[in-house]
Write a structure and sequence with these properties.
eight-stranded parallel beta sheet, alpha/beta, binds manganese (II) ion, Arginase, Chain A, Agmatinase, signal, agmatinase activity, Ureohydrolase
């Protein structure tokens, strides 16, 4: 008898599932069809609303994700022009519904910030000189507007998806115009401060001076950098038979933390070294060359170097650096043709999420009140004005 009852109840359950469904009771089409799955819809970064920001100078936002699909300045394997599309595709399991960052303690997509996917800069692959001019002009367009937050007098913050690493030069040019000399935290296996004459070619041109290993040298020549820049994750082989590359790097104003250092001091030790080198409250720009990760964690990149950090370690470092005001960031050198099972794009899309989380957690920039540091602010999570940062978040 008991068995019989159980059978009937199972049959009822199955019948109900098969025959009944509930439709949203609403005339609002958004309530009926406005939801997307991670695998449906057009790929924008994290399903963010998309507007081609370059086409509307009156459009305001707080954080813009912008793709720069340029890879004509690489010295080895190309393919990073496909980076923005691949990173967007790999970000599809991110959306505001399930966006709470347990490491940061916030959902960046459900906080004070208006975050847009600004689309791509349609940068030419034909001519590096022209490309540099286009990118410089595009960042001026994007940053020459006010943030959306209240009566903000500050520009929005941009998270750039590369593209090869050369694209940082036009970014730094424009950030310099707003903030003055920029402090760059440069996560990379390579120095990227090489002079153009350090490349093994007898043939040179103005365009050849601009490449993904010289752009920080050029940034220094143009006076865009502060004195407190940091390379983290280095493990490149050096030119010649001595320390000449490091000596030249010293002259560009970078401190160096080599990849192997993590074996001695751990993740916390690396973070401590970075913090000790920077005056407290220094506004920073974070540039993540995905080749800072070990090729086992990021095979899809042009100039892979073995012996690198794990994604977990890099994420932890980025989270620990959120006490420094973050004025902008990039994730570059993702080359999808060399990727395996989207490992590299997944890493890049998550790193972008962490950097966006930091920007949201820190609150909006107020150039007027604190000369490029952050001002006090209110939002849903913190009603109490605490000045500079919302301290209780840290
Ligand atoms: Mn690089």
């Amino acid at each position: 008898m008991i068995l019989m009852l159980k059978l009937v109840s199972i049959l009822c359950l199955v019948a109900k599932c098969a025959l009944c469904f509930e439709q949203p009771d609403s005339d609002d089409l958004n309530t009926i069809w406005g939801q997307d799955w991670p695998f449906s819809g057009i790929n924008t970064y994290a399903h963010l609303p998309h507007t081609k920001c370059l086409l509307d100078k009156n459009l305001t936002f707080d954080i813009g994700v912008i793709g720069v699909p340029f890879d004509s300045a690489v010295s080895y394997r190309p393919g990073a022009r496909f980076g923005p599309q691949a990173i967007r595709a790999a970000s599809q399991r991110q959306f505001s519904f399930r966006g709470f960052n347990f490491r940061a303690g916030i959902n960046p997509y459900k906080s004070w910030a208006k975050i847009l996917d600004c689309g791509d800069v349609p940068v030419t692959p034909m001519d590096s000189n022209l490309a540099l001019n286009m990118m410089t002009s595009a960042y001026k367009n994007l940053l020459d507007r006010k943030s959306a937050y209240e009566d903000s007098s500050s520009p929005p913050r941009l998270v750039t998806l590369g593209g090869d690493h050369s694209i940082i030069l036009p970014i730094l040019r424009n950030l310099y115009d707003i903030y003055g000399p920029i402090t760059v935290i440069h996560f990379d296996s390579h120095l990227d401060t090489w002079s153009p004459i350090d490349y093994p070619s007898y043939w040179t041109s103005t365009a050849s001076e601009f490449n993904h290993g010289t752009m920080l040298w050029k940034a220094k020549q143009e006076g865009l950098l502060s004195k407190n820049n940091i390379h983290a994750g280095l493990r490149t082989r050096l030119s010649g038979n001595d320390w000449g590359d490091y000596e030249a790097d010293d002259r560009t104003g970078f401190h160096r933390i080599e990849s192997d250092r993590i074996l001695k001091v751990g993740v916390d030790g690396i973070v401590e070294e970075i913090k000790n080198m920077l005056p407290e409250g220094t506004p920073i720009y974070v540039s993540v060359d995905i080749d800072v990760l070990d090729p086992s964690a990021a095979p899809g990149t042009g100039t892979a170097e073995v012996g690198g950090w794990l994604t977990r370690e890099l994420i932890s470092m980025l989270r620990s650096l959120d006490t420094f005001p973050l004025i902008g960031a990039d994730i570059v050198e993702v080359s999808p043709p060399y990727d395996q099972s989207d490992i590299t794009s997944f890493a890049a899309s998550h790193i972008a999420y962490e950097l966006i989380s930091t920007m949201v957690k820190q609150g909006p920039i107020d150039l007027e009140s604190h000369n490029s540091n952050f001002h006090s602010f209110e939002n849903n999570q913190s009603k109490e004005k605490t000045g500079f940062f919302a301290k209780e978040w840290f």
